[in-house]
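**Archive record**
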Amino acid sequence: MWPWEHLAFGYLTFSAYSRVRTGRPPRSDAVVVLGVATQLPDLVDKPLAWSLAVLPSGHSLAHSLLTALPLSALALVLAYRARRTDIGVAFAIGYLSHLAGDVIYPIAVGKEPFLGFLFWPLVPVPSDQSTLGFIARFRRYFGDYLTYLDDPAVQSFLALELGLLLGVFFLWLFDGMPGVPRKIARQVPVIGR
């Protein structure tokens, strides 16, 4: 998944949780934590594998449940002690939704899922180290993605994905644009407010 897809999936999940749990949209500070947590596995693993060659893959250390579950539990405990459980839940949902997205996405595009990264280092992951640096690899992957967008066989999936992204964007607007400073958010006319 791309960063915006991880963010949308995490936000949809957290907004639903907030509405079911409290009857209100998520708070801005929790959404900021959520946003960081949805990106955290890639922010750790990709540079360590692609630039520094410390990890075997961009899906290893931070993508492993052996890392994600203890970090999420720690966030929940610290947030509970600070009487801000929504912050801990935002972190846990953001982080774990990233992993779920990385499992679901290959299935959605018709590829074989690989679950081994969830149990790294107990289960080895295929190495994706190469002589390409981080920027060169990103450009290659993004170029492949743009080529993929032209494939007629995936047009229905792309329509579904675009619909999801737009739906989450409108949900975020309806929620009052949490994560955006209030001064800016008040200047944008929104139906939900």
Remarks:
- The two ends are 32 Å apart (CA to CA).
- The chain has seven helices and no strands.
- The chain has a mean pLDDT of 90.
